[in-house]
Structures are given as structure tokens and as C-alpha cells.
Design a protein that fits this description.
Blueprint (H helix, E strand, L loop, with lengths): L3 H22 L3 H16 L1 H9 L4 H26 L6 H24 L11
Length: 125
């Protein structure tokens, strides 16, 4: 497991987050929505995206990356739920967003554990 895929994924997240702040402050509604959608998808699929960026040769390395990505994705998912809750804690937003993120992470982990093909990572690679 290398740090580079995390740096790339979090770097993209940082750029998107900054762009969404600029779009909101300039009242660019369409750009804001597109960037918010990109941030949402990136957080929901943080583990598989990081594994894909890493392009590791073994399932063990990809599984290890996904496991660490879970610890990055879950706090981001809580932040996303807070944003979707109108900058307040909304139990339904937390359950849906954090729950979906956890399911994606677990599904990717299980796929990497049971996959017979070394090149299959949840259909992404």
C-alpha cells in the first residue's frame, strides 16, 4: 500500500471542495450542483476509486488499500451527511449516506477477498 493513491484522491476532493465553495459564493447554481454531485460520488465510492487509482498488482494490496480507505471515507461521509442535512445533523441523511458508504466499502472489501480474478475490483478494474 502506497500513499500516492490517497494523495491523488484527496487532492481531487480538495480541489472539488474549493470549487464548490467558489461556485456557491458566485451563485453559479449549475456548477455548484455538478461539483456537489462529483463530491458525493467521490465520497460514496472513495474506497473503490482509491483502489483503482493505486492499480496494485495483487488483491492483498488492493484489499489493504480499501481497508485504509474506509477510515478516510467514513468521516467524509459524515461530513457529506451534515451538508445534505442543511448544515445540521439529520438522522435520515446520516443513515443513508454513511450507510451507503459503509456498504460500498464492505462490498469492495468482500469482492477483493473472494475474487478469483486478480484484475477484478468490484467491476472497476
Amino acid at each position: 500500500m502506497r500513499w500516492k493513491p490517497f494523495a491523488v484522491n484527496l487532492g481531487i476532493f480538495t480541489l472539488l471542495f474549493a470549487l464548490h465553495v467558489v461556485a456557491a459564493s458566485r451563485d453559479f447554481a449549475l456548477l455548484f450542483r455538478l461539483v456537489a454531485l462529483s463530491i458525493t460520488l467521490q465520497i460514496l465510492f472513495f474506497g473503490p476509486l482509491t483502489v483503482w487509482i493505486e492499480n496494485a498488482p495483487s488483491r492483498f494490496e488492493r484489499r489493504q488499500t480499501n481497508g485504509i480507505a474506509t477510515f478516510v471515507a467514513l468521516p467524509l461521509a459524515f461530513g457529506l451527511a451534515w451538508a445534505y442535512g442543511g448544515m445540521a445533523w439529520d438522522l435520515s441523511a446520516v443513515v443513508v449516506i454513511v450507510g451507503f458508504t459503509a456498504v460500498v466499502q464492505a462490498w469492495t472489501h468482500a469482492t477483493l477477498d473472494s475474487s478469483e480474478e486478480a484484475s477484478v475490483v468490484g467491476g472497476l478494474k
